[in-house]
């Protein structure tokens, strides 16, 4: 049979360790927050550029989805002279709720100086 009676010293150390634990828990990072739209835009461009090695020039479409975020990013694929002959591409980019890139794919490629024929009748 063990003695479970606490001495004043053991009670003090137990109290001190509980306070220390409570203090640590209050300083631990909380569950990640949902990023702001501008943070998502910046992070999506940076992540896509790092993965593809190409410059993300602009975001032409941006929406929040149930899973996170969906963007269409315009990328400079091949720089030419004059600049109007450079090859551009649109990439569909998907991010999770925290703003981390989960996938991307090229959806079209075009010359910078050409009008968009998509959707015209």
Write up what this structure looks like.
- There is one protein chain.
- The chain has 121 residues and is α+β, with helices and mostly antiparallel strands.
- The chain is 30% helix and 35% strand.
- It contains two helices and four strands; from the N terminus they run H-H-E-E-E-E.
- It has helices at residues 8-27, 37-52, and strands spanning 55-64, 68-78, 87-96, 101-111.
- Strand 3 (87-96) and strand 4 form a beta hairpin.
- The model has no long low-confidence stretch (mean pLDDT 81).
Topology (SSEs and partners):
Blueprint: H1 8-27, H2 37-52, E1 55-64, E2 68-78, E3 87-96, E4 101-111
Antiparallel strand pairs: 1-2, 2-3, 3-4
In brief, what are we looking at here?
With 121 residues, the protein is α+β, with helices and mostly antiparallel strands. Helices cover 30% and strands 35% of the residues. A four-stranded antiparallel sheet has the order 1-2-3-4, covered by helices on one side.
Residues in helix, %? 25-40%
Averaged pLDDT, please?
81
Task: Flag low-confidence runs.
Answer: none
The structure class reads alpha+beta
Estimate the strand proportion: 25-35%
Q: What value does the Rg take, in angstroms? A: 26 Å
Main sheet makeup: 4 strands, antiparallel
- Main β-sheet, spatial strand arrangement: 1-2-3-4
Question: What overall form do the CA principal axes indicate?
Answer: elongated
Distance between the termini: 90 Å
Helix and strand string, N-terminal first? HHEEEE
The total of helices stands at 2
**Extended strand count:** 4
Oligomer: single chain
